[in-house]
Every structure is written in structure tokens, then in C-alpha cells.
Amino acid sequence: MHNQNNIRFTFGFDTAKDVFEKLKRDVAILEADYRNKDAIFNFVITAYHLYDDWLKKDPSISQLQRDKYNSTKNELKDLIGALYAVANSSKHSV
């Protein structure tokens, strides 16, 4: 994320792998308490953006990994659509 002064705010999330590690931590929190609304929100937002943003744009992703990502798009279309709907409705409901 950039602000108008072109300063990056990444909070230590610089690669898709960093975001994936966060997603795994979100899963652990959900496994401990599946009713934790903050954890559900964090998981959905992180999962969607990992797939839709980070995996597309991270220069550290190898061509083999990109090919695998591209080959799963149709298989994951419904799941990603659901993540998109939940992520955006939870961020923009007001």
C-alpha cells in the first residue's frame, strides 16, 4: 500500500509467502475458536487477497508456481467467488 508520499506500509508482509504464513496463523486461531468474528474476517480477507493479489504480483513466485496458480483458476472459481463476496461485503457494508 502506498500513501501520497510513496511510503510503503507492508507491516512485514512483503511476499506471498509472508501472507500465506499469516493465513496459517489465522487458521490456527479459527481452529481454537471457530466463532471468533475477528478471526473469520481476517481469514477471509487474507485468503482472498493472497489468491487474487499477492500470487499474481509477487516477483518471487517462480514460473512453475505461476503456471500452477493459473491452472487452478477454474477449479477454484466458485471458492474464490465466495471469498470475494464475503470479503467485499464485510468491508463495504456501510
Summarize the structure in short.
The protein has helices at 16-32, 37-57, 63-72, 77-91. The protein is an all-alpha fold and 94 residues long.
Structural summary, described in words:
This protein has 94 residues and is mainly alpha-helical. It has one domain. 67% of the residues lie in helices and 0% in strands. It is globular. It starts with 15 loop residues before the first helix and ends with a helix. The model has no long low-confidence stretch (mean pLDDT 84).
What secondary-structure arrangement, pairings included, does this model have?
Layout: H1 16-32, H2 37-57, H3 63-72, H4 77-91
Helix pairs in contact: 1-2, 2-4
Report the helical percentage.
55-70%
Series of H and E elements: HHHH
N- to C-terminal distance = 23 Å
Structural class computed from helices and strand pairing:
mainly alpha
Q: Supply the number of structural domains.
A: 1
* Structural shape: globular
Pick out the low-confidence regions. none
